[in-house]
Amino acid sequence: MGDLMNHPHGETATPAQPASAKPPGPCSIVIFGAGGDLTKRLLMPALYNLANTGLTPEKFVLIGADIAKRSTDDWKASLHKTLESFIGDPNAEDQIKAIDEANWSKLAAHMSYVQGDFTDAGFYQSLKTELESLESQHGTGGNRLFYLAVADRFFGTIVEHLGAAGLVEHKGDEGAPWRRVVIEKPFGHSLDSAKALNAQVLAVLKEEQVYRIDHFLGKETVQNIMALRFGNGMFEPIWNRDRIDHVQITVAETVGVEGRGKFYEQTGALRDMVPNHVFQLLAMVTMEPPVGFKPEAIRAKKYDLFASIETLADDDAVRGQYGAGTVAGKPVIAYRDEPDVAKESAVETYVGMRLKINNWRWAGVPFYIRTGKHMTCRMTEIAIQFKKAPLAAFQDTSLETLPPNWLVLRIQPDEGIALQFEVKRPGQSMRLAPANMEFRYSDWFKPEPNVGYETLLYDCMIGDQTLFQRADMVEETWRVVQGVIDHWGSTTPADFPNYESGGAGPAASDALLSHDDRTRHWRPVSVPAKDDRA
Ligand code: BG6
């Protein structure tokens, strides 16, 4: 499309639109887990990118809290070093060409490090003293954002201590200082533990103070699903059970457990990816149009959607575990040989599922989802298959051979949207061939450095909860998968490992689709060559 319109960068073809984003009002951010990977590789680069676009507050305090004894200067230096290591690295989280030292120094001038043990009440007193002193120095008006970038076992404890120390008092009145807490995933390990954590958190905080984060919602392509569906009139009439045959959602990764064996043995692919990331993709595609774009209007529709997903039966789900193999040309070991993984581990690294949504729009439309590690390539896509033409009216073509139309939302990499349909093959006889219409983000918009946390952090600072999970949403998603978690927890599959690293997952996963309809298959796990998409 870019070529047709002769606008290699669509943005520059129309007069620049005024940027609607303004810097957030004064506030302090306190990051728990200041020395951790999430802070170094994602949160700080995101704050730095926000600073570069003028979207950090003028009056600002940034406190890093962690157990290690170190100085503020040492903390700043290590963050700067991580940022530097991204320069020129095509696999780095942030694609930066250089560090803007003036902007970095401006940001660094607001930073301070506080050492302490998150389970010790005394630590919260020193944090309070430091915070109050910096607040009056920088004039942040007492607005505070606490970011829990720590292992999930600390979530409840930190919130309780914040409450006991009087750090999160929040009246919610216009003009009164606000206090917010960002809680990372995993939010619970089961329905019961998610409910218990919600109860613990909500005993201290109001729901409007809680920002349960899912970083998939920070991806532009995920946010774009709402723009595509609700910013265009042409999709709505076909976005339902009348026209859609089924939907496939794939989150394929090439990475393995990457030294996270201990975490993964407790978690597995289902808990790690499904009730959170994959369900977020599902909700974006299937939720009803909201009555407006206010956060509560959108969250209400998402909640309705989660509440309509049928609780999974055991035979709606298939699990897999990777054996040894080759990924991206490199030999890799089996999951059971990874450090900190049991030799007989029953933990799954792949999940395939069939979901049913019991509402008027989707009744009878199966949603197939799969996610796995050590797969052929990295590919996250939502593929919508439309019902076939009712009749093959063309000579030499039978209904059997008429391929279906696909609308494919490519979330990552090679972000874009493709529509596949049939065209006449040039020649004297009427023969069909599949063709592809392509929208590629990179053809239309200049890529900006972005690690995916910028929008989420910005939204926390301005108090927009649209992209964050409400307590009831989280509980509904656990409700859907809990039965399968229980079943899998009590049995060890005899065939593990059952897929080769570098492959497309276990064979049993294909049966999920063919069982419903023998013409249904998973789409290939491969990123098509740029000019060869079909
Ligand atoms: C994390 C999971 O939440 O998401 C990881 O714990 C997974 O196991 C990651 O690899 C995927 O996120 P992204 O943004 O790299 O696709």
TrEMBL record:
Entry's Gene Ontology BP terms: glucose metabolic process; pentose-phosphate shunt, oxidative branch
Active site (catalytic residues): 277 (proton acceptor)
Ranges for domain Glucose-6-phosphate dehydrogenase C-terminal: 226-522
Pathway(s) where this gene product acts: Carbohydrate degradation; pentose phosphate pathway; D-ribulose 5-phosphate from D-glucose 6-phosphate (oxidative stage): step 1/3
Residue numbers spanned by region Disordered: 1-23, 495-515
Residues the entry annotates as binding substrate: 215, 219, 253, 272, 373
Domain Glucose-6-phosphate dehydrogenase NAD-binding: 30-224
Basic and acidic residues biased stretches: 1-10
GO function term, MF aspect, one: NADP binding
A Pfam family that the UniProt record links to this protein: G6PD_C
Job description of the protein: Catalyzes the oxidation of glucose 6-phosphate to 6-phosphogluconolactone.
Record family assignment: Belongs to the glucose-6-phosphate dehydrogenase family.
Name by which UniProt lists this protein: Glucose-6-phosphate 1-dehydrogenase
Source organism of this protein record: Acidiphilium rubrum
Top-level taxonomy: Bacteria, Pseudomonadati, Pseudomonadota, Alphaproteobacteria, Acetobacterales
